Amino acid sequence: MLAPDGPTKGAALGTPGRMRPSRLRYAATAADSYGGDVPKHADGGLTPGLALQVVLPPYELDALAERVATLLHRDEGFLDANGAAEYLGLTRKAIYALVERRKLPHHRPAGRLLFDRAALRAWVEGDR
C-alpha cells in the first residue's frame, strides 16, 4: 500500500491552502497482476502499465471534478484576426472576407477586430 507521508498542497486542485492527503494505493500489486511473475525490462525495471487507484473522499472528488470542468470550459479571452485565423485554421485574408460578408461572429470595440473563442467554436459546430 502506498500513501503520502504528509499533507499535499491544494494547488493541485486549484484551491489555495493545504488539503488532507489522499490515499493512494495500488489496485493490485505487481505480483498479483502478473500471476506471481513480474515482467522486467532489459534494464531491470518493472514493466510499465501497472494500475494505480486513487481513493478520494467525496469533497475532494467534487473539487477535482469542478476544477477539471473549469479548465475544459475556461475562456481564454478574445482573439485578434491572426489568432482567429490560427484557431480556425484559415488565412487572415479568409477571416477578413468572412467578417466583411457578416458570416463570422466578431466584435469591433474602438475599431479593433476581436473574436470570442466560444462564438467561433459555436460557428464551427454549426450554430451560425
Task: Jot down its keywords.
single chain; 128 residues; 2 domains; two-stranded antiparallel sheet; two-stranded antiparallel ribbon; 5 helices; 34% helix; elongated; disordered N terminus
Give an overview of the whole structure.
The protein has 128 residues and is α+β, with helices and mostly antiparallel strands. It folds into 2 domains: 8-71, no CATH class; 78-124. It is 34% helix and 12% strand. It has 5 helices and 6 strands. The strands form 3 sheets. Strands 1-2 form a two-stranded antiparallel ribbon. It has a two-stranded antiparallel ribbon with strand order 3-4. The chain has a two-stranded antiparallel sheet with strand order 5-6. Strand 1 and strand 2 form a beta hairpin.
Alpha-carbon distance between the termini?
Answer: 54 Å
Question: Main sheet: which strands, in order across?
Answer: 1-2
The figure for the number of domains is: 2
Structural class category: alpha+beta
Shape descriptor: elongated
What are the low-pLDDT stretches, counting only 5+ consecutive residues below 50? 1-31
Largest sheet: 2 strands, antiparallel
Short description:
With 128 residues, this protein is an alpha+beta fold.
Write the layout of secondary structure elements.
Elements: E1 8-9, E2 18-19, E3 23-26, H1 30-33, E4 52-55, H2 58-72, E5 78-79, H3 81-88, H4 92-100, E6 115-116, H5 117-124
Antiparallel strand pairs: 1-2, 3-4, 5-6
